[in-house]
Amino acid sequence: MATPTTSTLPTRSATNNSVDEDAVPGEDTSEVTRLFSERLAAWKHAVGYLEDYIEATEKTNHAHGKEYEKILKTVKDPLKESHHFDQSLGGVAGMFENIRSNTQGISNQHYETAKQLKGSILPVFDRLHTEIKNKTKELTKGAGKGSKAVDKARAHTQKHIELLGQHTATFDSAGGRMTATDDPYVVQRGVLHRLNKQILEENNNRQDLISVQNSFAQFEAHIVQTIQHGLGQFMQVVNTQAEQTRAMYGDMVGTAQRIPLDFEWNGFIQRNDTVLIDPAAPARSVANVSFPNQDHGSTQPLISGSLERKAKIMRSYDTNYCVVTPSKFFHEYKTDDNFSRDPVPEMSLYLPDCMIGAVSGQKFNVKGKDVSKGKIGNTLSMSHEYQFKAHTPAAAAQWWEIIREAAGQVTSEVPAGSVPTSPVTGQNSPDASLASTVQSPTQPGGLAPLQTQNIATQGTVASPTTAGTAGATPSSAAPASGVVGEPGKY
């Protein structure tokens, strides 16, 4: 008996040389599954032909000559799904052609073997038929469900890509005025999240199909071996018949046993090399995928990075990932990770409706309303003053400058506990007349006091006494805070 040989699967050539791939490919995910289902059906019908043949042989042995012609009818028609078999000599199709011709020659032979045929030969092919049916169910429940999961994930991705196209078009036509949830930057991150889930489903389904594909060669070898084994037993049963009958059955069995175990499989992969999966091809990656409006200007942040924000209750600083988008939104996220969970902003401020204070060292304040909770949540939410701290003064100045350009109102308010960044100079300084003016701590409306900072590069904070000594005007000689000698607080 021939030993199974290793066959090389076909390689599907790439359609272009670019590394970019479509986010939602147009390929049919169930194409490979249907192909293997058809092939299993072809094998099932082939085994069914053999079952019918032997059963009819057993029955017609009781009727001799004329009744034996019924056997020929079981293999008279071409095989179902015959395009799955090699039509040249030496394969399954050639084997059935040989069976037809020999059956015609033994139409008048003995039938003493009817009982043995029914009791020992038919069960072999019946079990093989059942194995093929079980393989079909396994394919449908395994790879078939995976294909449906891929189609569902692709539908979600396509829906959000179309949503991104709508909102980027709105951004271009409406001048960037939109809600936080419609911000193209936010929508794009949602696309990336669903695209990652889609590719995970695609890769899982692909691996399942590769496993099924690799197992088919061994399964088909088992089918051929079982056919050979059954026909070998069949030959032993009819060996006691007349010499002519024995010779014709021997010819049928010899034809079946001369089929190489990989003959049909190699022909199959050659005829379907454009459909079968190449296991050597790399898996898909989000980094190599492109989709419409991926690089649209509205999806690229003006500035992004980590900032610390003071909590309202504990008064401690928590580090978050923040961005300012071209839509003039300030979004705050827990992290910059797009894949582990849906990247929905924890807080969103529409900067044209916000007020930003002065920057002091690493700190600056923004007062506004969190608009990340939807239309109803935005109506019920109240304005709050958010205190931020960057990692360095230079970073704080960079964030402040970009936020200032988009903010609806800019004040000279300094964060609590900050030392004035532009102190009043000494008496001998050319800028001695430029002093810091601080309002009373009791501001109307509950706002923190505003401190007007003037340009100065040297000197110390002016107290009422030193201001007078420097010859400053009464307005410039006002104390820096409600407590003499302390910087401005709120």
**What is the CATH architecture annotation of the largest domain?**
Up-down Bundle
Kindly, what is the distance between the CA atoms of the first and last residues, rounded to a whole number of angstroms? 93 Å
**Within the largest sheet, what's the order of strands?**
6-5-4-3-9-8-7-10
Q: Uncertain segments of ≥5 residues (pLDDT<50)?
A: 11-19, 419-490
Number of helices: 10
Strand content: 5-15%
Helix content: 40-55%
Major beta-sheet overview:
8 strands, mixed
CATH topology annotation of the largest domain: Substrate Binding Domain Of Dnak, Chain:A, Domain 2
Q: Mean pLDDT across all residues, rounded?
A: 75
> Would you tell me the structural class of the helices and strands?
alpha+beta
Query: What string gives the helices and strands in order?
Result: EHHHHHHHEEEEEEEHEHEEEH
Q: What is the 3D shape?
A: rod-shaped
Rg? 41 Å
What would you note in describing this structure?
This protein has 10 helices and 12 strands. With 490 residues, it is of the alpha+beta class. It folds into 3 domains: 24-288, Up-down Bundle (Substrate Binding Domain Of Dnak, Chain:A, Domain 2), CATH 1.20.1270; 301-418, Roll (PH-domain like), CATH 2.30.29; 419-481, no CATH class. The strands form 3 sheets. An 8-stranded mixed sheet has the order 6-5-4-3-9-8-7-10, with helices on one face. A two-stranded parallel ribbon has the order 1-2. The protein is rod-shaped. It starts with 20 loop residues before the first strand and ends in a 21-residue tail after the last helix. Residues 301-410 form the PH domain. Residues 459-484 have a biased composition (Low complexity).
